[in-house]
Amino acid sequence: MIIHFPVKTPTAKIEEIAKSLEAIVLKDADKFALITGSSVKKLPEEVAKLATESFVFDSDIQLASKKYTSSVREIQIGKTVIGGKSNNTLLIAGPCSVESEEQITQSSELLKELGLTALRAGCFKPRTSPYSFQGMGIDGLKLLDKMRKNYGYTIVTEVRDATQVKDVIDYADVIQIGAKSMYDHGILKACAKTQKPVLIKRGFGTTVQEFIQCAEFVLSGGNPNVILCERGIRTFETKTRFTLDLCSVAWLKEYTNLPVILDPSHAMGYAYGVADLARACTAMGVDGLLIEVHPNPAVAKSDASQQLNHDEFRGLVKSLKPVAKAVGRTIV
Ligand code: PEP
Ligand code: MN
Fold it and tell me: Which residues constitute the domain of residue 36?
């Protein structure tokens, strides 16, 4: 249950009620909001008297629920807005990993040519093998920061453990939590303490319920700027890397107030399918896309098979614009 109290309620009273209900307290300029588990359906009479409003839920999807806030929350990403009243579909693009200054500069030049503003690349890579490239770490973050300064880009990059959150906050504009780390409470709690947008990727064995409950950790910890990213789940199918779960995207759009971004690159795992999938995703009227593109995919140090080359990416961007327009959206 979420219960609102007037902002002038004495803090000691709020704390007393929170303790008795085992609730988390959130405060903003005009109210206190207490959040209990969803099993609480009714308030004690003396608490109800002090409350201005209360919301009952059938599961622990609460702050993220449309039942709580009926419109999609607006999130400022650099100079761009997604969600809210905007019709933007933010195209976030870049190589899987930062590999060198030359490579990330080539990616930046491509985005500039296409009028895009959100550059994404990983510096702390959560690889499935300890023998693969693990990312450039802090040196990679410094290169991204250089691109941010030189080109004015919004930087999206991943944290792999909680000790990296501070550096990523310093150098990037959006913190990405990867599919393999979305259950990491150290990361979630560190991301809750900042107001930087957090892009949470769905684990490939994660139900939608579990996925959004991870988002609830960030929201209830005080950061309202959470974006969900569907990037494919594991099914019995082995011909493609993962299975992009568009049904769940429809569910997220219907029942949650969080902006949704789709990542066809990691779902497909092969460059040949990415453009078709990206157009299908755009047609769903989502808030953003995440596409991997590399100056020379054949020599990429991670995810080589799925990254588009620059010409393929140019063609894709051109083809996405009319699809976005057909569903009342603009690619930005
Ligand atoms: C990535 O975005 O490069 C990545 C590692 O993706 P995921 O966490 O979805 O596997
Ligand atoms: Mn990747």
Answer: 2-55
pLDDT computed for residue 325 by the predictor: 98
> CB neighbours of 297 closer than 8 A, spacing ≥ 6?
271, 304, 305, 307, 308, 309
Q: What is the DSSP pairing of strand 31-35 with strand 24-27?
A: antiparallel
CB neighbourhood size of 68 (10 A): 16
| Separation of first and last alpha carbons in the chain | 37
**Of the bound ligands, which one is closest to the alpha carbon of residue 293?**
2
Model pTM score = 0.97
Please report the DSSP string for 78-114 in residue order. Answer: TTEEESTT--EEEEEEE-SB---HHHHHHHHHHHHHH
Short-list 300, 246, 240, 235, CA closest to 266: 240
Within this chain, do residues 38 and 145 fall inside the same structural domain, yes or no? Answer: no
The pair of three-digit structure tokens given for residue 15, joined into one six-digit string: 């704390």
Mean pLDDT, residues 101-107 taken together: 98
Number of independent structural domains in the chain: 2
**Nearest alpha carbon, ligand 1 atom 6:** 178
Contacts of residues 78-85 at CB distance under 8 Å and 24 or more positions apart, as own/partner, are 78/117, 78/118, 78/153, 78/154, 78/173, 79/117, 79/152, 79/154, 80/117, 80/118, 80/154, 80/332, 82/227, 82/259, 82/287, 82/288, 83/258, 83/259, 83/287
Ligand 1 test: best mutation among 129, 231, 261, most atoms within 8 Å of CB?
A: 231
Distance from residue 15's CA to the centre of ligand 2 (Å)? 44
Q: Which ligand is nearest to the CA of 122?
A: 1
Domain membership of residue 130 (yes or no) is yes
Domain membership flag for residue 69: no
Residue 63 lies in a domain: no
Distance CA 193, CA 190 (A): 5
Mean predicted lDDT score pLDDT of the chain: 97
Give pLDDT tens digits for 306-328.
Answer: 999 999 999 999 999 999 999 99
Dist. CA 105–CA 110, nearest whole Å: 9
**pLDDT for the residue 86:** 97
Question: Coil, helix or strand for 323?
Answer: helix
